[in-house]
Amino acid sequence: MTAGRTAFRRRYSPAAFWRGRLGSWRTRRLLEVHLVVLLLLTAVASTALFLSSRQVQHGSEALASREAPAVQGLAAARLAALRAQEEADNLVERNLIGVAGSGEAYRSQLSAADQGLSRIADRTDQDLGTVKGLLATYSDSLALGTSLYRDQPLMPKQKLQEARSLLTREKVGIAPRLQALQRTQLEHAEATATMGRWQHAGWWVAELALVAVALLLVSALFVLRDRCGRDWNPYLLAAFVLTVLLAVVPVMTAYSTQGELDGALGELRRITVTSWQGGPPAVVQQEVTEMSEHVRQQSADGAWTESVYRGALVGSLLAVVLPALGLGLRLDHDYWRRR
């Protein structure tokens, strides 16, 4: 029974099946076909892996360095402008106009808004010139509204009303303009950081090609041992291990990074909604600052994708070279020199 079972296994084992499928091929031609197909598949897999990894890294870097700071900065600038108005109104209500140092609160908020818009201008392609011009006019109106007019007591009230109109006028005021810019910038961030259909297709192509490469490497190792009586080829074994790593590590990194990007986008949406809600500007500013710090931490956690991307690039090149060395040297030693 033992001998019968052994014969049955040998006859119907995967090795016997594959040996039968390849039986009509000459050994040299079989190895040459393996070499050519391996080169083609590794080239396709490496290209798809390189492009897909680069896109994920680019999205992570763009969100951390440009898109997220722009969304946060626009929200902060809008809240600073609103708080400046609140502080100026408090001066008038408490009769503190003319008191030394009484206008520092609103002036610091205006300065923060102006500096924030200047920083954002380097991170977005949106036109901020109109908003900055309105902010300068708004600042002048607040300055006049908090000045002491002994002969014209109604002048501060009139100037503050002008400032409020510049700030809140529908569609053309500073706050509505900044809100529209923030909405557009959030859409840019979502488009940059979201993995689209073509990116998913690129990963599928890379993974399927790497699976085919791994199976073909196993076939090449089998042919060398079965037809040529050779031990395990170190180049092909290294290529197989590398192929498995390339099929696992980059895609796990990519989807882990994508999860972090989705979390950061969720925080940016929360920042946008919170900054648009009513409430004391000082309280909303504190909430937005805390959420912005969380986004910065999430963006910093994705910095390790750079090393994985470089490793995938080097691994992709080796995945092309190693099978060529393994089969090319074997063919040269055993077959081509005999021609």
Summarize, please.
The protein is mainly α and 339 residues long. Helices cover 83% and strands 0% of the residues. The model is unreliable at 4-9 and 15-20 (pLDDT under 50).
Structure description:
With 339 residues, the protein is mainly α. The chain has eleven helices and no strands. The chain has helices at 2-12, 14-21, 27-93, 104-121, 129-145, 155-168, 174-193, 197-227, 234-276, 281-301, 305-334. It is rod-shaped, with a radius of gyration of 33 Å.
User: Averaging pLDDT over every residue, what do you get?
Assistant: 80
The largest sheet is: none
What is the straight-line distance between the termini?
Answer: 48 Å
**Class by SSE composition:** mainly alpha
Name the helicity range. Answer: over 70%
Q: Uncertain regions: pLDDT < 50 for 5+ in a row? A: 4-9, 15-20
Write down the oligomeric state. single chain
Which descriptors apply to this entry?
single chain, 339 residues, 0% strand, rod-shaped
Question: Helix and strand layout, with pairings?
Answer:
Layout: H1 2-12, H2 14-21, H3 27-93, H4 104-121, H5 129-145, H6 155-168, H7 174-193, H8 197-227, H9 234-276, H10 281-301, H11 305-334
